[in-house]
Every structure is written in C-alpha cells, then in structure tokens.
Specification:
Elements lengths: L6 H18 L6 H13 L7 E4 L5 H10 L4 E5 L2 H9 L5 E5 L12 E7 L8 H11 E12 L6 H8 L1 H7 L20 H7 L2 E14 L3 H9 L3 H9 L2 H16 L9 E13 L1
Parallel strand pairs: 1-2, 1-4, 2-3, 4-5
Antiparallel strand pairs: 5-7, 6-7
Length: 279
C-alpha cells in the first residue's frame, strides 16, 4: 500500500493534531502564529472576498483573514475535531469551521477568491489532489497562498536529533506510519513553485521566513522537538520517566559531540511562503 494514501497514516496524523491541539498556538513561543501572520500579509485579502482556509487547525490564518475581508466570509476546514474546537472557541462573526478533507471539498467550482494552506500541504493524504481541489474551487484569477516548512535549513543540532528518531523507535519496538521522504522537500524554494505550477497556478511571489533560538537544556530541547511533528511527538510522549531520562542524557552527549558549544541546542524554524494565481 502506498503510505501516502493509507488510512493508517491519516488516522495517525489526526490523532497527533488532536493531542497537540491544546498547546499548538503556544508552541515555540507562538511560532505558528508568526507564520500565519506572514502568510496572511502575503496573501493580501481584501474586503468582500470569500476565503477558504484548508488545514485550518486552530484557525490562526482564518481568524487573521476574517477582519480583512469583512463583510466577506472565511471557511476553515480540518480533520482534527480538537483543533476545530479551539478554532470555534475564538468567536469571529464571519468565520465558519467545518470538518472536511482537503482532497474532497464539497464546494462548487469557482466559488472562492482566495484559498490559504498554512503549514498544511505536507500533511495532506494526497497533496496533488488537494491542490487540484483548491484550483477547482477558486474563481479564474483567484489566489492560493501556501506556507511550508523548509527542512534543509535545520541546524546541525536538529539534524542530529532527527537522525536518531528512527533508531530510538526501533529500540522501543515502536512502528509508526510515515509519509515518503519527498515531502520533506515541499518547503524548498525550487520545489514549492513547481508543485503549484503543476497544479495549474502561476506563482507570483515566493519569500522565506527564518527564525530560531536555543533551548536551555536537554529537557527544554526534547519538549520543543516533541511539537515539531508526529514522529518526535509520539516517540517522546511514549517514554516513561526512566527512558525519558536516558533520552535526555543521549541528547546531552549528542550536543557535546557537535564540538562548537554555540551549535548545541540551537534550532531554526524555516519556512517558504508562496502566492499563486489560478490560470
């Protein structure tokens, strides 16, 4: 079975987002909100527009778009009910949130002026179909705004940590579904425009956003990395106190192996953002 289309993978991702929902908005000091704000500025929504936010999560993008398009309407869709519950708790009169898959939009063709996908494309069961659906529901000349994490700008510390996740899973007899590795390149500045072009869009702007910092110790580091995706989250949260202590000792040793103390516990959060118009 193709792992990119397996029900098991979708269930795993929905479970991850359901579990991380309460801390999603505060992760890394509000990093997701910063990316959402940058994406909305790039998309430049205007009054009276009808907007679809695909993979809306806690509604960060949708709630920022809403006042800009008012009295226009924003629709936010997602598969995680816990994320949607948080999105609905922030009352905004011209936003509606519904459970829906990106690959199976119920909306009629040429309905929306703008479609946004904030940090969502790499998580869809079928990104190609999701982009095709976005194209279908956009009016001619309508805009698509997408943000994707750029993993190639990870620090040496991040690379070392993520390289150790698969061996860690094997040691603890954990077998987790994973998407194919090509998705890790979705956020590259030479890849995202190609994906959008192949889906029938003309890319009008591409920009990057890079932030970062340093964790203070191994516990702080593993807490931060747990929020970086379903694999580290599931692994780290599955460890009892003893194995968590062992992991943190391994993290300390790995950081020391980097040689330069300035590299230890340093991380980058890097994203590529693109806006494109429907041909």
């Amino acid at each position: 079975m193709n792992p990119d289309s397996s029900d098991e993978m979708v269930d795993h991702l929905v479970d991850f987002f359901d579990r991380i929902a309460p801390v999603y908005d505060t992760w890394a000091g509000g990093q997701h909100a910063r990316v959402a704000g940058r994406l909305v500025d790039l998309a430049a929504p205007i009054k009276h527009e009808l907007v679809l936010d695909v993979g809306t999560g806690t509604g960060l993008v949708a709630h920022l778009v809403a006042p800009r398009v008012s009295p226009g309407l924003v629709m936010g869709i997602d598969l995680s009910e816990n994320m949607l519950s948080i999105a609905r708790a922030h009352k905004t009169k011209n936003v509606q949130f519904v459970g829906m898959a990106a690959e199976h939009l119920v909306f009629r063709p040429a309905m929306f002026d703008l479609v946004t996908m904030g940090e969502a494309l790499a998580y869809f069961a079928d990104p190609t179909t999701a982009l095709a659906e976005a194209n279908r529901v956009l009016r001619p000349g309508g805009r698509l705004a997408v943000s994707c994490q750029r993993r190639s700008l990870s620090t040496r510390a991040q690379d070392l940590f993520f390289q150790g996740l698969a061996p860690l899973a094997r040691r603890h007899y954990l077998s987790l579904p994973r998407y194919s590795s090509d998705r890790s390149r979705f956020g590259e500045p030479d890849v995202l425009p190609q994906l959008l072009g192949a889906a029938g869009f003309d890319v009008t702007r591409v920009t990057e956003m890079v932030t970062g910092g340093r964790a203070k110790d191994a516990r702080d580091w593993t807490e931060l990395m747990a929020g970086a995706g379903p694999l580290p989250f599931t692994l780290i949260r599955s460890l009892g106190p003893r194995y968590r202590d062992e992991l943190e000792a391994e993290v300390e040793a790995a950081m020391a192996s980097l040689g330069d103390p300035d590299d230890a516990f340093r991380y980058h959060h890097s994203y590529v953002l693109a806006v494109a118009t429907k041909r």
